[in-house]
C-alpha cells in the first residue's frame, strides 16, 4: 500500500519533533527573496496563495511552484520500509528558456564527486560539482537518458544506490507540460517541432513589517483563557508545553499558545494583539495545520525568528513527508511566503517547493 500523506490533518494527531525542518534554523527559507526598501504600495497585489499540486507516478513524485519552477524526486521502493537507498536523485528545472536543469542527490550519505551514474549497465556520467550536483547541459542530457531507462546506479565515495526509474518518464512529461515545453525541442521527454512556451510567472511580492518593539507578556491566566478559546485539548498528566509571544512590529504581538502534542508534532494556536483591540485568532491568508480555511488556524511545530513564522507539519517522525510553511506579518495578517511539501512517506526528505514569494520589509 502506498504511504501517502493525504490529507495531512489525519496524520498529525497521531504524530513532538525529532527531525529538523527543511528551513534553516532561524533563517528565511532560501526560495523567499527578502529586500529592505520602500516600494509603491500598489506593488503588493495581495494575491491569494495557490500552491502547486504534487503528482506521483509510481516511484517518482513531481511538483511545480507558482512561477513555473518544477522538481521531480525519486521515492524509495514501497517494500523497502525504512531501509532506503543511500542516495535519492532529484531533477529540477527552472522556467523560461533554456530552463536550467539540475540533478542533485539527497539521502543517508553525502554524494561527493566523482559521482558515477550507470544506466541499465551503461555508464552515462562521471563527475559532479563539489556539492554533488550536475547542472546545465550535462544534467539535461542525463535526465533525458534516465527517462528512457529502467534502473540507475549511483556510486559515490564507495557508497552505492540502485534507483527505480519507473514513473520518471511520466513525471518529466508532466513537468514539460506544466512548463509549456511538451512537444517542443526544449522538452525533456516527448520532443517535437512545436513552440517552447515556457516562461517564468510573476513572483508575488509581500510588503511585510520589520519586527520591532516589545512583545506583550503572557501571564498564565491569559494563556489559560486563550487555550479555552482555541478549544485546546489539554488533559491531566499531559506534557507541559511553553507558550511564547513575539513582537511583529507596528505595536502588534503574536502569541503562540501551547495547545497539545503528539509523538512528533507540537500544536500551537496563534493569536495576535493589535493596538486598541483584544487578543484574537491570528488572521492567516492560507490554511495551516488543522485550519481548513485559515479562519481558526492551528500551527504545527511552529517557530518565530527574525520576523518569520515557520511551521513543519510532519506526516511521520522520520520527516520524509509533511508540509513546511513560512509566514510574514503585513500589518493586518500573516501571509504565506513559502510552502514546501512531500506527500509520499517513502524516504525522500527533499521537499518540493510549491509556493514562493518576494518579501519586502518596511
* Largest sheet: spatial strand order: 2-3-4-5-6-9
The largest sheet is: 6 strands, antiparallel
Could you name the ranges where pLDDT drops below 50 across 5 or more consecutive residues? 6-21, 23-39
Helix and strand sequence: HEEEEEEEEEHEEHEHEEEEEEEEEEE
Which word captures the global form? globular
The number of helical elements comes to: 4
Average of pLDDT: 87
Compute the number of structural domains: 2
Radius of gyration: 22 Å
Characterization of the model:
This protein is mainly β and 362 residues long. It has two domains: 9-47 and 204-361, no CATH class; 54-179, Sandwich (Immunoglobulin-like), CATH 2.60.40.2540. 10% of the residues lie in helices and 34% in strands. The protein contains four helices and 23 strands. It has helices at residues 9-12, 137-146, 168-179, 220-230; strands spanning 33-36, 54-57, 60-64, 70-74, 88-93, 101-106, 115-119, 122-127, 134-135, 151-156, 159-164, 205-208, 244-249, 252-261, 266-273, 280-281, 299-300, 303-305, 308-314, 322-329, 334-342, 352-356, 358-361. The strands form five sheets. The chain has a six-stranded antiparallel sheet with strand order 2-3-4-5-6-9, with helices on one face. The longest helix has 12 residues, at 168-179. It is globular and about 70 Å long. It starts with 8 loop residues before the first helix and ends with a strand.
Amino acid at each position: 500500500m502506498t504511504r501517502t500523506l493525504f490529507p495531512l490533518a489525519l496524520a498529525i494527531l497521531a504524530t513532538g519533533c525529532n527531525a529538523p525542518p527543511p528551513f534553516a534554523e532561524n533563517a528565511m527559507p532560501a526560495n523567499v527573496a527578502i529586500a529592505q526598501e520602500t516600494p509603491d504600495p500598489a506593488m503588493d497585489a495581495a494575491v491569494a496563495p495557490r500552491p502547486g499540486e504534487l503528482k506521483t507516478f509510481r516511484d517518482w513524485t513531481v511538483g511545480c511552484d507558482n512561477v513555473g519552477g518544477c522538481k521531480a524526486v525519486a521515492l524509495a521502493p514501497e517494500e523497502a520500509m525504512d531501509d532506503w537507498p543511500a542516495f535519492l536523485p532529484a531533477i529540477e528545472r527552472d522556467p523560461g528558456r533554456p530552463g536550467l536543469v539540475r540533478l542533485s542527490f539527497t539521502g543517508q550519505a553525502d554524494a561527493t564527486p566523482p559521482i558515477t551514474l550507470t544506466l541499465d549497465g551503461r555508464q552515462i556520467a562521471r563527475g559532479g560539482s563539489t556539492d554533488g550536483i550536475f547542472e546545465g547541459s550535462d544534467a539535461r542530457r542525463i535526465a533525458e537518458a534516465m527517462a528512457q531507462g529502467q534502473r540507475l546506479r549511483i556510486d559515490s565515495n564507495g557508497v552505492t544506490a540502485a534507483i527505480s526509474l519507473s514513473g520518471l518518464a511520466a513525471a518529466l512529461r508532466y513537468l514539460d507540460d506544466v512548463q509549456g515545453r511538451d512537444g517542443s525541442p526544449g522538452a525533456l521527454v516527448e520532443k517535437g517541432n512545436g513552440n517552447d512556451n515556457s516562461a517564468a510567472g510573476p513572483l508575488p511580492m509581500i510588503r511585510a513589517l520589520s519586527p520591532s518593539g516589545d512583545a506583550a507578556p503572557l501571564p498564565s491566566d491569559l494563556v489559560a483563557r486563550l487555550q479555552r478559546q482555541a478549544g485546546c485539548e489539554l488533559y491531566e498528566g499531559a506534557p507541559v508545553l511553553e507558550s511564547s509571544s513575539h513582537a511583529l512590529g507596528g505595536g502588534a504581538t503574536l502569541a503562540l499558545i501551547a495547545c497539545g502534542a503528539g509523538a512528533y508534532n507540537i500544536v500551537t494556536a496563534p493569536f495576535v494583539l493589535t493596538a486598541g483591540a483584544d487578543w484574537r485568532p491570528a488572521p492567516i491568508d492560507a490554511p495551516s495545520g488543522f485550519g481548513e480555511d485559515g479562519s481558526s488556524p492551528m500551527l504545527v511545530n511552529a517557530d518565530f525568528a527574525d520576523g518569520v513564522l515557520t511551521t513543519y507539519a510532519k506526516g511521520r517522525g522520520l520527516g520524509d513527508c509533511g508540509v513546511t510553511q513560512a509566514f510574514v506579518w503585513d500589518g493586518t495578517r500573516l501571509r504565506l511566503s513559502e510552502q514546501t511539501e512531500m506527500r509520499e512517506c517513502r524516504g525522500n526528505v527533499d521537499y518540493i517547493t510549491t509556493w514562493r514569494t518576494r518579501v519586502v520589509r518596511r
